[in-house]
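Q: Could you write out the predicted structure for this multi-component system? I'm mainly interested in how the pieces pack against one another.
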Amino acid sequence: MAENSITTAKKAVVIGGSTGSIDVLLQVLPALSTPLTYVFIIVLHRRNTADSTLAHLLSLKTIIPVREVEDKEPIKPGIIYLAPADYHVLIERDRTFALDDSEKVNYSRPSIDVTFESAADVFGPSLIGVLLSGANADGTAGLKAIKRKGGLLVTQLPETAQAAMMPQQAILNTQVDYILDIEGISSLLNNLNL
Amino acid sequence: MIEDEQMDLLLTDLFERYGYDFTHYARASLKRRINRVWSLDKFPSFAELRYRIRTDTEYIKRFVEELTVNVTEMFRDPFFYKALRTDVLPTLAAKPFIRIWHAGCSTGEEVFSMAILLKEAGLLHKSLLYATDLNPDVLASARKGIVALSQMKQYSENYVLSGGVADFSMYYTAQYGYAKFLDELAERMVFSTHNLVSDRSFNEFDLILCRNVLIYFDKALQQRVLSLFDESLGLLSYLALGAKETLRFSTLEAKYRPLNGEKIWRKIA
């Protein structure tokens, strides 16, 4: 049992974003205190090119390892996981990743809703869902699922987002717990790191 | 939204009544598929969904088709196809006869892509393409060689990125919003149902393609299917998987050598 308590993090964070959200992450990642003690998963809408330039770009901004999700990989705290281009990321009960290339959701694959809903199922009340800048409505249904399971909802302050629609949709349609600017998001994440 | 225990009931029904075994499919994604059909077909309760599955043999076809993912495209991951052109087909060219198996071929877009590669390499006349799927309805659709014309812009871009130099439109005729591929391409194809969960190996192949199927299975089933492929591959034959699938964690790893960064392995022992 002892080894389980080391590898099983208490908290998990899923962050979703679209247009304008890469810039946010490029500011948030360097501000994160290390080592990360929670599970950290990023879902960004991206062009359908199977390259890893985004993971590389993000990895330049932090000493925390950044990895594209591999199918069946066990989820560990202390790593920044990034959804790969053209696949949905789901999470199994045994805390491994499962990839899925089924239909696009909200015209997107990876879809934020898909990962948020699946993570809500597994992490329940210990999940924090964060929705960043974006010009569509992906993520709102996912946040609702997180709320139903007792998790915490955070959106970027729409005035600070390059594309305000995604956080606005969430604020209008769900009960968001925190609406934060970029600095606020960084410090909330650092407060989880206890 | 379906509960885990309800899901177990459905999977037991599907296996006991119809012989479809989904128990070793990856749960999270299967759950999403079931919730999707539940809402698409507007079942008011789990009891009614289950009753329909237990009693309506026509509906089973639709249900199983919706449970399995049938998303595919032509020349998907164009650099994978480029590797087939430059690294795989030239070595297969020395064979008197080439047998290729597309396992889990869905609606056939990848089989037609392969037929085009073979034709351009001057190998189609001595090749046979076996295309299998567990679902008879998607195979029927594959056999027709018809795809929506609206897809053709994307497919033709993929084709060019894969190293294709011909005019892609020479491979099909367009009518009423659909594109039908030349009969010449389909002549070398054999379509047949085959369930990777329960069926055995049925031939020896020079190349097996199974792209984006293993991700839907749990580890035990992945291992079983990989062994089935291994039994079906001759020495120095090739196995091709999807962009996020790997032999790395399987017992087969030592017998195969990866090619060029793409998801293609050659059997060396």
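A: Regarding packing and overall arrangement: DSSP finds ten helices and ten strands in chain B.
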